[in-house]
Structure formats: C-alpha cells, structure tokens
Amino acid sequence: MRTERKLTRLDRVFARLDREPERPAHIDVPRMSRHRVVLFASTLAFYAAIVWAVVITSWLVRLDWQVMFFRPYQQWPEIHAFLDYYVVLGQRGPTAVMIAAWLGWRSWRQHTLRPLLTLGASLLLLNLTVGAAKLSMGRLGPHYATSVGSNEMWLGGDIFPSGHTANAVVTWGILAYLASTPRARRWLSAVSAVVSLGVGLTTVYLGTHWLSDVVLGWAAGLLILLALPWFEPLIARAETVVFDLRDAWRARRRGTAPAAPAPVPTAPAPAADAAAEQEPVVREPVAASRPPRVQGYLAPGPHLTRSERTPVTPVGSRRPPQSDRVTRGTASARPLAGG
User: With 301 labelled, which of 43, 108, 154, 267 sits at a CA distance of 20 to 30 A?
Assistant: First the structure.
C-alpha cells in the first residue's frame, strides 16, 4: 500500500513560492475621504505652527536647549550601542532597499506595479518637500549651535525637519497604506508608528537633532501618507503605460505586431460593388443595346460582358458521343465471323 509523504513546513513554503502568481480580483485603493481631508488640514496647520514657534524663538526653542543640555547620551550610555544600529531604520538608503524588496515581491505575485509605484511616488514627495524645507530654513543642529538660546535658523544647516524621522514615517507607513485587509492595516500602522517614534527619539538621544526637528519630521511624513490618494490616478496611468511598453517590447522580440485595442469600423461598400458581387448569382436577360459595365465597378479578377460569355445551355445533343455505336436501320460493315 502506497502512502503519501507528509509535507513539512519547508515544503509548504516552497510550494507557495512555486505557485503561479495571481492578480487579486479587487485591490483596495484608499480614497481621499472627508475624514482624511480633515486630518491632512489639521496636520498641515500643526506643521505651520511648529515652524512659526521655532521662527519666533518661543518656548519650543527653550525646550530644545534644555533637552540638549540634559545630554541623554550621557545619562543612559548603556543603550548607546543599540541605538546606533536602531537609528538605521530611519536612513533612506537601507530602509528603501528593504521596503522595495518586499513590495517588489508583492508586485510580482499580484501582477501589478502599484506597490512599487506608490513607494516611488512617496519617496519622491519626501525628497521634494522635506529637502526643500531643510534648504529653505537652514537650521543648524545641536552639535553646531552658535549661540545659546537662539533658534539657529538660516545659518546654512539642513536638519529642520528631521529627515530620519520623516523617512521612517513614510517608508514604514507605506506598508500600512498598501495593506490588503483592515486588520493588517491596523497592525502595520501601530508598528510603523512605534518605529518612527523610536527613530525620532533616538536622534534626540544621540544629539543630532533638536526635539522640534523630530516633531516637524513626524508631521512632514504624515502629510505625505495622507496626500497619497490624490496621486492614485497618476500611479494607475503610469502602470498602464509601463505594461503597454512591456507588451510592445515582447511583441518585437517574438517578431509579431502588438494586438490592436479594437478594430475601427469601416464604411459600408458602395451599392455598385454590392450589385457586382451579386451579378453572377442573379441571371437576368440583357438587352442588346445595354452597354457593358465599367471595369472599376466589378469585383477583382477577369470579367467579360454577357455577350462574350459561354452560353449556359450546351449546343447539340446532351448524350455523350459513342464511336462504336451503330445507328438503327443500317447494316454492319463488318462481315460475320464464320459465314
């Protein structure tokens, strides 16, 4: 009796990897709802309030200096080595590679480029908005501060808002944004919030950012995630263009023309052509004075006028000719054998 081998967990993993990828029947694309618009407007107002508080050197700047003088890296030196590695979760290069690898796997499995294109759009928005804010405000960091109590604005720095914090919010939050189920979205939102919160506080611990830099970085990253539904139509069009280019390239490799989207309806044939096509079927008597038709209105191929055509009814008897048959009433010319 033959028994089947029980599959191990590793066998099931490889079976899943070998399975033919399938595009999901329904992809949940977030919409720009009224609730999201309210959150976006509130976060934008909070972003502007933080910038204004730093520009006017308010209590927030004094809090920055108090945290800097506290020197957390000297208060808790035992966690310094761990946080040096943990802060890498906010660096753009390593995190972008890790997230792109996972989203590339999802794109291949689901036959869609939306995860990768969404990540690319979010990183592009991150570089444009955060980079422009850093260069325009030019704030110096705690290690390069020039005078105690100043806001250190427009002195050639590039730390306001915190790029590590904003990058952590976007790169880890994009996993929650692209989640396929509400439960996965809730869990991934919590994980991304913890990671980005930890990365921001780590930069304050290491002394590379003011506390206000981190708060503004959280707001900057959240603004990008909230604004992504506005770019979904552009992402869908970009995916269509990429797939069309891929199909055309495959068709050129096979040496065949790409499939046309839909045949264009043609105009109906002229009435003269339809009559010419029906001419051999309908047999009508033709008068002798009727002029022959013009050659251009006939169907393709050699055509003759009716007067030059072979008659339909054959001339003479319909009986086939027989050379050895003798006509009745006549004697045979050959003599009888043995007479």
Answer: 267
pLDDT digits (tens, 9 = 90+) for 238-264: 999 998 998 889 888 887 655 555 554
Residue 334, token pair as written in the block: 């050959």
Instruction: Tell me how crowded residue 316 is: count the other CB atoms within 10 A of its CB.
Output: 6
Distance of alpha carbon 192 from alpha carbon 174, whole angstroms = 9
Q: Which residues contact 46 (CB under 8 A, 6 or more apart)?
A: 219
Q: What is the DSSP letter of 132?
A: H
Q: CA-CA distance, 223 to 43, in Å (whole number)?
A: 7
CA dihedral 25, 28, 29, 30 (to 10 degrees): 170
CB of 169 closer than 8 Å to CB of 122: no
Residue with tokens 């047999």: 283
Q: DSSP states of 269-305 as a string? A: PPHHHHHHHTTTTS-----TTPPPPPGGGSPSS----
Residue 171 in tokens: 């790169």
Query: Following CA atoms 237, 239, 240, 246 in sequence, which dihedral angle do they give, to the nearest 10 degrees?
Result: 150
Query: Which helix (H) or strand (E) is 220 found in, with range?
Result: helix 211-227
Cis peptide upstream of residue 161 (ω within 30 degrees of 0):
yes
Is 53:60 a contact under the CB 8 Å cutoff? yes
User: 141 with 262: CB under 8 angstroms?
Assistant: no
> H or E segment at 64?
helix 59-70
Residue bearing tokens 């979760």: 89
The answer to whether the beta carbons of residues 27 and 114 sit under 8 Å apart is: yes
pLDDT at 150 over 70: yes
Whether pLDDT at 284 is above 80:
no
Q: What are phi and psi of 28, to 5 degrees?
A: -80, 105
Structural tokens at position 136: 């325009």
Closest by CA position to 164, among listed 82, 94, 102, 100:
94
* Cα-to-chain-centroid distance, residue 328: 94
Contact 117, 240 (CB under 8 A): no
Q: How many CB atoms lie within 10 A of CB 143?
A: 10
**AA identity, residue 288:** A
